[in-house]
Design brief:
Elements: H1 2-18, E1 28-30, E2 32-37, H2 39-55, E3 60-63, E4 76-84, H3 86-90, E5 97-104, E6 107-115, E7 120-125, E8 130-132, E9 135-136, E10 148-151, H4 158-174, E11 177-179, H5 184-192, E12 198-204, H6 206-218, E13 222-224, E14 237-242
Parallel strand pairs: 3-4, 10-11, 10-12
Antiparallel strand pairs: 1-2, 4-5, 5-6, 6-7, 7-8, 8-9, 12-14, 13-14
Helix pairs in contact: 1-2, 5-6
């Protein structure tokens, strides 16, 4: 099956991450000093492009480490983040993931997120449920008062930081506690697996959330923009993901 073949490609890329020599990672910045890219981001993306297009030759390919992105509006497309959590990767923080979504006419059909550090492979097919290492997963059925809030600080966008922390304080006051992983893909999978109840970030790129959003929905959760409305796979937007019993209207 295609999803199993994609998993093997991602596992192979995960080995490259685990064996990386960070002293020779060739760390560069993309615009801001905290927006990093390494030779491993580029190497993983090159492998994903080659192997995924061998599996689906007629697909478009949208990867983070590209200057120009192809349209996903018609036909098949892969939306890929080769290393989500690059700063974590550079710091050896061990909270980074490979994220691959496959779309059909702009709709996510397959979502896969692989955390090589824990050897956790999260997968979902539209209409067929969500899984971690082949076992079904479901979002939490706890209210936020009995749950955890995950957040992204929108650190690449200074104009959003104050609002991010203002909303975080609101969520903190309604939660047991808060967590910050540094990987949107992993945060979405954490919601899908029922390990936390709410996640938000005020601006993410499609490759950050394309795969994870399907995994959350197939696990029984909800995904939208923070301000309400659907997420948009064609451009950056805010992302809000919750378990089944969380009312996040206080963030609007």
């Amino acid at each position: 099956m295609l999803i199993e073949q994609i998993q093997q490609v991602m596992r192979d890329c995960g080995q490259l991450m685990l064996q990386a020599d960070r002293s020779r990672a060739d760390v560069e910045t993309k615009g801001r000093s905290n927006n990093l890219v390494t030779k491993y981001d580029k190497a993983v993306q090159d492998i994903l492009r080659e192997k995924l297009l061998e599996l689906v030759p007629d697909a478009h390919f949208v990867g983070e480490e590209e200057d120009v992105h192809e349209s996903i509006a018609s036909g098949k497309a892969f939306i890929v983040d080769p290393i989500d959590g690059t700063t974590n990767f550079v710091k050896d923080y061990k909270a980074s993931a490979i994220s691959v979504a496959m779309t059909q006419d702009g709709e996510v059909e397959l979502g896969l997120v692989y955390n090589p550090y824990l050897d956790e492979m999260f997968t979902a097919q539209r209409g067929k449920g969500a899984y971690c290492n082949g076992k079904p997963i479901h979002v939490s059925d706890q209210p936020l008062e009995a749950g955890l809030t995950l957040y992204g600080s929108a650190s690449y966008y200074p104009e959003l930081i104050d609002d991010s922390f203002r909303l975080l304080r609101k969520a903190f006051d309604r939660s047991m506690d808060i967590r910050r992983s540094g990987s949107a893909a992993l945060d979405l999978c954490t919601i899908a697996a029922g390990r936390a109840e709410l996640y938000f970030e005020l601006r993410l790129q499609p490759w950050d959330y394309a795969a994870g959003s399907l995994i959350v929905r197939e696990a029984g959760g909800k995904v939208s923009r923070v301000e309400g409305g659907d997420i948009d796979l064609t451009k950056a937007c805010s992302v809000l993901a919750t378990g089944s019993k969380v009312d996040a209207s206080f963030l609007h």
